[in-house]
Design a protein that fits this description.
Blueprint lengths: L3 E3 L14 E3 L6 E3 L3 E2 L11 H18 L7 E8 L5 H12 L5 E6 L10 E8 L1
Parallel strand pairs: 5-6
Antiparallel strand pairs: 1-2, 3-7, 4-7, 5-7
Length: about 130
């Protein structure tokens, strides 16, 4: 199965690391993840947003690995953050995660998540 990610020349290029369009083959099976928060595998939630962001990405990788799905098969990802994140940390962690093949992406700063101590939630959709 080949997932195709592209940026058409009919719109301006992306302003960050993402693609405008992802095409999923008809025969693909969807793998939809609940929004992942920034706790580690032991349930410990760090106080800083950068560590929560890194943990949420690690949680997504772990879930996908449990289903034998690569992060390259993510076709849509949504980031919700409640406070500003260090841009360099974000870009470094994000690039390491997608390995130069970013999915269609939404990034938003919001006022709150389900609990006050949560600063990051990331939702991912993949196909296999």
């Amino acid at each position: 199965m080949k997932i195709r990610k592209t940026n058409p020349d009919t719109v301006s290029p992306p302003i960050a690391q993402y693609h405008h369009v992802t095409i999923i083959p008809r025969e693909a099976e969807l793998v939809v993840l609940s929004g992942q928060i920034g706790n580690d595998k032991d349930g410990i939630l760090p106080k800083d947003i950068e560590s929560q962001f890194a943990n949420a990405l690690d949680n997504i990788k772990a879930i996908l690995n449990s289903e034998r799905v690569s992060t390259n098969n993510i076709f849509k990802i949504n980031f919700w953050l409640t406070e500003e994140i260090d841009r360099k940390v974000f870009l470094d962690k994000w690039e390491d995660f997608h390995k130069g093949n970013p999915p269609v992406t939404t990034f938003a700063y919001i006022t709150a998540l389900a609990k006050p101590e949560l600063k990051v939630e990331i939702e991912a959709w993949a196909a296999k």
